[in-house]
Write a structure and sequence with these properties.
The chain is an alpha/beta fold. The chain has helices spanning 46-54, 76-86, 102-106, 108-111, 116-129, 145-157, 175-192, 203-206, and strands at residues 6-15, 20-30, 35-40, 61-66, 69-70, 87-90, 163-167, 195-199, 211-216, 219-225. The relative contact order is 0.20.
């Protein structure tokens, strides 16, 4: 499909009454296969932008088009379907279900569509690639923080989404595990062509993305290309 995979047109988000404007008429495109880092100080609106673009939160005015369709004008069932089939999410906290094993957690998105059987081999390959195969039958309480976050990324990728949204994915990790997560993102973007939109406060990690959008007080201060290693 030609054209940008994500197109934001005059996106405004405000909270409360009188309204506090958090996102101020943002307009930008994201091409298919781009890896974009969103940066800014605390309170700049970067996580709000991620939630609005992904459809997890509503907007006050403007449009967000994904594959040419306005996600905020779609029926709730259509949005839910798009999120499960075309979009993956990674958050600062892993949100693994404590009563399920690692493999069962990774297969959760497939279970919703009764596709566990056909996705199982892909889930196992992701576990191998992300070095969590030894956790296959472990519960989250038996895993390290880095293992849980890598399992959460595998869960986000098990349906092979076109777009991956990540909100501070290394925020709770030490340096070694943060590097492992960033390596996973690099390889996922380069080898699979997955479009990645990542919020991060770590400038070194943002520079590993091919493009960096920096927000200040809800507005785009800069939008530049990075030279990737």
């Amino acid at each position: 499909m030609s054209g940008p995979v994500i197109r934001c047109k005059n996106v405004v988000k405000s909270f409360g009454e009188p309204p506090l404007v958090v996102l101020k008429s943002l307009t930008f495109d994201i091409a298919r296969g781009e890896f974009v880092g969103i940066t800014g100080r605390s309170g700049s609106g970067k996580s709000t932008l991620l939630y609005v673009v992904s459809g997890l939160d509503g907007l006050s005015s403007g449009e967000v088009l994904i594959d040419g369709r306005d996600i905020h004008a779609m029926h709730s069932r259509e949005v839910h379907d798009m999120r499960n089939k075309k979009i993956g999410f990674v958050f600062q906290f892993h949100y693994l279900l404590q009563e399920l094993t690692t493999l069962e957690n990774i297969l959760m998105p497939a279970r919703k569509y009764r596709r566990e059987g056909e996705r199982r081999s892909h889930a196992l390959s992701l576990m191998e690639r992300f070095d969590v195969m030894h956790c296959r039958d472990k519960l989250p309480s038996q895993m390290s923080g880095g293992e849980m976050q890598r399992a959460a990324i595998a869960r986000a990728l098990v349906m092979e989404p076109d777009i991956l949204f990540a909100d501070e994915p290394t925020g709770n990790l030490d340096t070694e595990n943060s590097e492992k997560v960033m390596d996973i993102f690099d390889k996922t973007n380069k080898s699979l062509g997955t479009t990645i939109l990542m919020v991060t406060h770590e400038m070194d990690f943002a520079k590993r993305a091919g493009r960096q959008i920096h927000l200040t007080d809800g507005a785009i201060e800069s939008d530049r290309r990075n030279r990737r290693r």
